[in-house]
Amino acid sequence: MNATLAPAPAPATIPAHRLTPRNSERLAMGLLVIQPSPFCNINCDYCYLPNRADTRRMDHAVLERVMDKIWASGLAAAPFSLLWHAGEPLAVPIAWYEKAFEIINRHPKAKDYVIHSVQTNGTLVNDAWCEFLNRHQVEVGISLDGPREIHDHHRKTRSGEGTFDKAMRGMECLKRNGVPFGVVTVISDISVDRPDEIYDFYRGHGITGIGFNIEEIEGANRSSSLDRDGAAGRIRSFFKRFHERNKADGFPLNVREFQNAERNILEPGWSSRPDGNYYNQEADPFGMINVDCFGNFSSFSPELLGQPTEKYGSFTFGNLLSGSVFDATGNESFQRVLADIEAGNRKCAETCAFFKYCGGASPSNKYYENGTFDSTETRQCVSTVQIPMQIVLEDLEDELGITATVPPIPRA
Ligand code: SF4
Hints:
By secondary structure, this protein is of the alpha/beta class. The protein has a domain at about 280-375. It contains 13 helices and twelve strands. The protein has helices spanning about 60-75, 95-105, 110-115, 125-135, 150-155, 165-175, 195-205, 230-250, 255-265, 330-350, 355-360, 365-370, 380-400; strands at about 30-35, 80-85, 115-120, 140-145, 180-185, 210-215, 255, 290, 295-300, 310, 315, 320. The strands form two sheets. A ten-stranded mixed beta sheet has the order 7-6-5-4-3-2-1-8-9-12. The longest helix has 22 residues, at about 380-400. Bound molecules: iron/sulfur cluster (SF4). Iron/sulfur cluster binds near residues 348, 352, 358, 376 and 381.
């Protein structure tokens, strides 16, 4: 899962193989993804969402039941992020959210526990949205791929027009209204060799919080423009140059991947489980719960929500209108997914020097890149875990004048 910029705190968890409804009170949910509608008003060619032309919307009665089930599960045992996503969230009117927030806020814990966030393409942001986002202190991530030519290459409307102007207008509106935001940028074939242009673009537009996603093979996006030999080397060069520029300027940009790497190196254990390993919310059952607009839910990576597969059946593990979150434990697909995620992570722990710092990274990338959760390395983990850590380590070692201890260079 690559949408949000801030990693969640580490809750106490139990080993997944002991997961039963009876002992589930010791689990905790760090992220709740709710899909208000599958619809998106634009049509990026790398999008993983299969039903983005579907304009149906979650009924408020469904939201009410969903939240009742979430609170009743006991999984909301600490503050958690509620991410409105899996479609363009701002394509649903503000009036719908006013009622939705009123429903959520009825629960006495909501004020202290629910941290609302949206990941938006920015094209529909206006003053009214900014007033709403400010009033409810909603954390905002906006998807921007860089300068016009780069952004418009993939991020187009259904009629094929670029969305750069509209997204930039939305971003300027956020700035004018004092809404804090971060930017998520997808690196693809068109941008991977152009770190300087992207760096200058952020600096020129006052963008300071950035997360990079590498164009992924995921869901409806069956191939990546980076599917060719040498991609890892090009991605490494991108990050290296970006880091050099940022360092030369005194680190004005907060880059999620480098911040995570620095924290892993300088504060080992900052997001760790009791066994000392990184807490990987995406690999923990119920660490993330993802609910579609009909109340169907999945766990693990949000990208799996509603995706049919040959190997595992449906990634829908139940419906919160008719059952509870823990009904998933009796679902065959859930148990097979969980068993394979655990098996893949055991292999990661045995074979990869980075396991302590990533906890096995994103299960959805393992599935879509390697065909099974029971696997290890992916382009996503090489790009967003291994390479940033290598660059930060090399930089620290240079500064300290010590012999290199950097783990092996990733495969191309
Ligand atoms: S970096 Fe990749 S291969 Fe290494 S432990 Fe993490 S997921 Fe596994």
